[in-house]
Amino acid sequence: MIMTKTIRQSNNSKVWTIGSILKWTQAYFTEKKISSPRLDAEVLLAYLLQKERIYLYVHFDEPLQENELTAFRNIIKKRAARIPVAYITGQKEFMGLTFKVSSAVLVPRPETELLVETAINKFSDYKTVNFADIGTGSGAIAISLAKLRNNFSGCAVDISKEALTIARTNAEIFQVSDKIKFLQGDLLAPLYEQNDFNKLDLIISNPPYIPLSDMDKLEPEIRKYEPANALTDNNDGLGFYRRLINDSSRFLTDNGALACEFGIGQSAAIKEMAQKNGWGKYEILKDLAGIERVIILWKQKY
Ligand code: SAM
Ligand code: GLN
């Protein structure tokens, strides 16, 4: 590999510093068509050195040790193979919390923070909020709600046993295990089993929504490394909304709501489902990029 040789050869003649290795890595990642080469280089080096990113900027001239160079070379190789940064570091920030992630779970996305913020805002005056997070993955949504708001507790469902293991670990890390019950099953099936009829204030979900036909157009980071069953319904991308919009109402209290994230261009189809399925008022919220991203459907509010 050219890259490996370059570092080794140069290492004989010159000392690699934080500044020079960042510059080199940025150029190499650019060549590998990675979309945020500088940021990734910094995040990965900071991770290796177990420092904050800001540390790098005030220590540009600090030399790297041989063992650090060897370890960083391995990290660079992984990223060049388009493994997502979060799978390399094993962690991802969401709602200001650092979640543990593995390739068994979707990397929590910044746009999903809108879904969590919507739930927090809309239920701020409820004394208690009994929620179900459907398709919890890393647990990002359920755990943020339980950690950031005392009045939120409930359950988190996923079909993937491996994902639930990560979610449970995150719940332990954030000390909210007593507020969230983790259940394995298909969508709302665990709620039937628990007899949750008319009991929940909030059903919240970021379901897989990428149409099967779009899967081969995704960036390699997503297509090759994230779990396919976290991304697509193996259909037109709307399958999970059909099921959730059809079946959720019976589990909700009269003041309850279903809140979902959805993908770009899915808003019209989802609005139509909402109108046809006997829900009360519904609201659509836009993300920071001005894209319609979240729908909240009230069981009985008009
Ligand atoms: N909630 C996490 C987040 O927002 O970062 C993960 C969302 S990911 C888009 C969808 C999740 O739904 C995955 O963890 C996947 O395993 C789960 N899932 C897929 N099909 C499911 C099903 N039929 N029943 C329950 N969960 C399912
Ligand atoms: N937001 C993810 C993406 O665009 C998809 C996650 C999902 O299907 N809910 O890659």
Could you explain the architecture of this structure?
- The chain is an alpha/beta fold and 302 residues long.
- It folds into two domains: 2-81, Helicase, Ruva Protein, domain 3; 91-298, Vaccinia Virus protein VP39 (Rossmann fold), CATH 3.40.50.
- The chain contains 14 helices and nine strands.
- The chain has a seven-stranded mixed sheet with strand order 5-4-3-6-7-9-8, with helices on both faces. The protein has a two-stranded antiparallel sheet with strand order 1-2.
- Helix 9 (161-173) links the parallel strand 4 and strand 5.
- Helix 2 crosses helix 3 (37-49).
- It is elongated and about 70 Å long.
- The model has no long low-confidence stretch (mean pLDDT 95).
- The structure holds S-adenosylmethionine (SAM) and glutamine (GLN).
- S-adenosylmethionine is lined by residues 105-106, 108, 112, 135-138, 140-141, 157-160, 163, 186-187, 206-208, 229-230.
Describe the structure in brief:
The protein has 302 residues and is an alpha/beta fold. Helices cover 44% and strands 18% of the residues. It has helices at 2-13, 18-31, 37-49, 53-58, 66-80, 85-89, 112-122, 140-148, 161-173, 189-193, 220-225, 228-231, 239-247, 267-276, and strands at residues 91-94, 97-100, 129-134, 152-158, 180-184, 200-205, 252-261, 282-286, 292-298.
